[in-house]
Structure formats: C-alpha cells, structure tokens
Amino acid sequence: MTIGTPEAAAKAVDFYADQGATSFKAYTNLTRAELGAAIQAAHRRGLKVTGHLCSVTLREAADLGIDDIEHGFMAASDFKANKQPDLCPGGGTSEAELAADPAKADALLDYLVQKKVAYTSTLAVRDTARNSPGIEVYAPDVRALFENNRRQPKSSPDAPMPSGLKQLVGFAKAFYDKGGLLLVGTDPTGGGGVVPGFANHTEIENLVQGGFRFEEAIKASTLNGAAYLGRAEKIGTVAAGKQADLVLIAGDPSTDVRDVRKVEIVFKEGVGYDPKKLIDAVRGKAGLY
Q1: Domain holding 44: CATH number?
Q2: Beta partners for 48?
Q3: Which one of 62, 121, 255, 263 has the largest count of C-beta atoms within 10 Å of its C-beta?
C-alpha cells in the first residue's frame, strides 16, 4: 500500500489490523515521519513492524522503534555516501561500502542490539549461483525467468562462499554474538530463484559455513522466530508440553550441514508426510498462483 502522509500511515495500520493483520512490513520509500506513525499505530495494538528500508536508515528506524530489519545490512542505506534524509539513494549496499568503515558497521550492530531490534538474514538470495535447490517445482516460465536473469554464472554447491556473502554472514554472526535476536528468512521467491523451504536449508548451510555452530544456526531458524512472535512458550523447541513439527533426517547435519537436505519424513501436527510425494505434487506448478 502506498503511503503519502504520517496520518495515512497510521490509518493504514489501523485499517488492516481491523481486518486481522498481525504484523506489518515497511518498504523502501517511507519517510521517517510516516514510518514512525506506522510503528506507533502498530505498537498501540500490540503488533510489530519490520522493514526492507532505504529512505530511512537502520539507525533512524531503531530510534523510531522498529521491531525488525529485513535483509540485515544487505539493504541498509547507513553506509551510502551523501545519503539525504528521507530519500532512498537506490541500489543495494555494496561489498565495498560495507567494508569501508568497519567501526561504523560494528557500532551500528551494537546500536541495534541495544534498541532490541531483531535482524533477519536472507542469505540464500546472495547464493543462487552456488545453490538454487527446488527450482524444479517452478512453472516453466518462472524457472526460465530466473535462469535467464541469474545474477552470476552458475557454479557448484562445492564452490567457495563468495566474498560478499561471507561478509554478510560475518555481520549476522557479529550481531548474534553481541546478543542480538537473529532471525532466518528467505527472499525473494519467483524469479529470484529462492524457493521457500529449500532455501531455508540454504540459509542454515550459509550460517554454518560462515562460522556458526550448527546448534546456533538451528536456534536462529526456529526458536528465535518463535521468540520474536511472542510464541516461544508454545513453539520453537522440542519440549514437554510444547507444540512441535519434526523432520526425520537420513544423516547427521551437525557433522555435515548439507545433510539437512536429506529429509525422509516431515511430521506436521502429528501426521507424517513423505516429502518426495509432496514435492512431486507441485513440480512445475509453483508460481502459477
């Protein structure tokens, strides 16, 4: 929804909350006043706001009370030279821009932790040259869109982690080690070559390859999301009295993280499902609806 004033931002939050919306995502071109009004309106209802930001820096958003930032430092405008207030300078943050001032990056991570802003990593979108698992479920035209617009020449899952991706994992690890609430997400779907579910495995692999212990990567992928949603007492870990969906894996991903893909059975609400049959049922259809 396009917003033009702080009043319209607050009104939009109230309208969609009345329809049952439980959280909100701000996008690139909101002003600080508009974002602040949306956050205040959401918080009055006990709801949260996340954001893929640009016109507003991460530090500014933290001051406004945002609950989460999407894509970590990937979309941050804090490192853009001559950034103008309330204007998006365009383009993602480059590897060189992030590397130019390590002290500034570290201080920003500290600030996000201090302000209790969660940090959602979406690493798989930067790893489609090495890893694009699950694209066989795409409709042919959607798959062609991705393969024709692949950001980098296709490589192998065994290829070294690209330097830009390694840098982003490093920021996620630093945030996690500082006590920040790191969340795991995937972005984008469709022509971006990132397939939900499959890409969650890629996220876990990226974290482990970038220095996380396997247990830390799993925590970021499960319990931390539940904690952010305020549901950690019910979901997020396997414990007596909690609700838990489970997977049976033919391997040991704590030894070889790539074994996380070897899923034999998925248990959802106590019922076991064959993942191969589920995938075959949607093969060639994803993206049609």
Answers
A1: 3.20.20.140
A2: 23
A3: 121
Largest interatomic CA distance in the chain: 55
Q: Which two tokens stand for residue 149?
A: 């617009």
Q: How many distinct structural domains can be found in the chain?
A: 1
If one counts every other C-beta atom within 10 angstroms of the C-beta of residue 57, the result is: 19
The number of beta carbons lying within 10 Å of the beta carbon of residue 196 is 14
Residue 189 lies in a domain: yes
* % of the chain with per-residue pLDDT over 90: 80
d(CA 73, CA 174): 12
Query: Would you say how long the chain is, in residues?
Result: 289
Dihedral (CA of 182, 185, 186, 187) sign: negative
| In-domain check, residue 129 | yes
Average model confidence (pLDDT) across the chain: 93
Give the DSSP H/E element, type plus range, for residue 44: helix 32-44
* Candidate from 44-58, 141-155, 201-215 with smallest mean pLDDT: 141-155
Question: For the chain, how big is the Rg over CA atoms in Å?
Answer: 20
Q: Is the Cβ–Cβ distance between 236 and 227 less than 8 Å?
A: yes
- Please indicate, yes or no, if residue 36 is contained in any of the structural domains: yes
- Residue 247 in any domain: the answer is no
The rounded distance, in Å, linking the Cα atoms of 227 and 232 is: 5
Residue range of the domain that includes 93: 6-237
Which three-class secondary structure state does DSSP give residue 206? helix
